Amino acid sequence: MSKEVGMSSCCLSGKVNEGTPVGHVETIGGLQTYVSEPENKSKSKTIIFLTDIFGWEFKNTRLLADNYAKAGFYTYIPDVFNGDAIPISFLDNVEPNVKSREQLSLLDKGKNQAIIATTLPPWLIRHREGVSKPIIDGFINAVRHIPGTNKIGAVGFCWGGRYAILEAHGSKETASGSDVSGVDAAYACHPSLVAVPGDFDPITKPISFAVGDNDSLLDNTTVGKIQDLMAKKTDVPHEFRIYENQVHGFALRSDWSDAKDKEAMDESEKQGIAWFNEYLS
What we know:
The protein is an alpha/beta fold. Helix content is 36%, strand content 18%.
């Protein structure tokens, strides 16, 4: 069964966090890319961030990439939208968390839905799989050819979470005998627009999932179906962690002023770092 749903206001919710990214920008594989290096500059454990709809310049994403670099990973955030990310200003137009969402009036909710309805559908068409997957594949291939690169992981959030899953299908050989894309391990945080079972049956690489139990784009029934599918893959290392009372986007856009939200965001970061330390070593 395929879960082809539109994105709700939850996908646009969250907070811009404090801090200053410390990485730099390069052009890799034809894409503008934020790069954050570990202290030893080693590329032996490389992670590619596949972003949510707010794209490669979103400060939260860059700060998180810096944290992965501090943990010893060479990190890249490519602009797979080619300058067409959803503006960060949208975060001010929708509810930031569960408590605020419950306090919104019907009029405010209607306004949010109207903003989303006129913005997201055309954006999703422009960045459909047939357009985006080749761009991501090409970037991964470019990174594999960078001297010193060994194993590559993909961490994806929301829109990018689905593509982390797709890259966990592994590499495919073309008619000419060359490999196309695929990563060595993946971490999908609150993925959206997933197809069940189509996106999950072909998974061959180690994959970790972080989902909230109050996610409007990945309901608990669908999560249960995914868990059942993955449980049958006894030869593929995988894990699921469900975060209590967390909405879509929590791993990247949690409100640091809320202790429980901050804890969930921190724990999801630790989850990813531990996963990649195990499967990129």
